[in-house]
Specification:
Length: about 100
């Protein structure tokens, strides 16, 4: 398989993953949102491990830059997921227990 075929295959898989992810997330009921966020945070932590491996070599390359970008985006996703989950859990506390 040459480089052009690999790029087209990777782009196709990425595009299909975007569509599937969009439709899966938008069809989740509100009761399942917190468990979904927990799984999303777990998946993002695995993405960070792979991105660190890609960004690790000292020489500057496209894969290193993409790995660095993946580390930043996955970190933002994990942090945002924890913030959203914390806010949702605050909704279920009694009025006097908030603080």
């Amino acid at each position: 398989m040459n480089e052009g075929d690999f790029f087209i295959t990777g782009l196709t898989v990425f595009t299909l993953a975007c569509f599937v992810g969009y439709y899966v997330v938008w069809r989740v009921t509100p009761a399942l949102h917190s468990p979904l966020m927990a799984v999303t945070n777990a998946v993002s932590s695995v993405i960070i491990v792979g991105a660190l491996i890609a960004a690790g070599p000292r020489q500057v390359s496209l894969s290193g830059l993409m790995g660095f970008l993946a580390v930043i985006l996955a970190s933002v996703n994990i942090f945002g997921g924890f913030v959203v989950t914390q806010r949702m859990l605050q909704m279920y506390k009694k009025k006097g227990a908030r603080g």
